[in-house]
Amino acid sequence: xxxxxxxxxxxxxxxxxxxxxxxxxxxxxxxxxxxxxxxxxxxxxxxxxxxxxxxxxxxxxxxxxxxxxxxxxxxxxxxxxxxxxxxxxxxxxxxxxxxxxxxxxxxxxxxxxxxxxxxxxxxxxxxxxxxxxxxxxxxxxxxxxxxxxxxxxxxxxxxxxxxxxxxxxxxxxxxxxxxxx
Length: 181
Hints:
81% of the residues lie in helices and 0% in strands. By secondary structure, the chain is mainly α.
């Protein structure tokens, strides 16, 4: 049980690579007699399974108090790789606004950089509920856009953008307050 969260994080990295590979090369993977729309369900399934590993690695680590330096580094890295591969796939499949993807990924890189600064300074800024909502909104939007069966996927994406930018601002404000104390 001790290594299971790390194994799940590593599996998420491989699933992120698989997701992008399927989106890029579905014409080679799927036989000719299979309708090409099945790539939607396959990429969505891969993404959903990978998203579940994110939930379970955190749950197991908290429940059994198994924390490691490896997990602290690779869990968020695996999360970013999954989101990045999903958004690249959506851009390739022409299902997501490049502006929405740019805003979300910019926030993710900015906050990752800020976390590095925080870790170096010895300060601590706890995760907030807005970050959890942001993640949920991103997962829902990506899932619906990959499956391509819900016409409101683009609306969900822009809701995710709003929550992403809000949580980034929230995290930044908390950091600024922590260094001014």
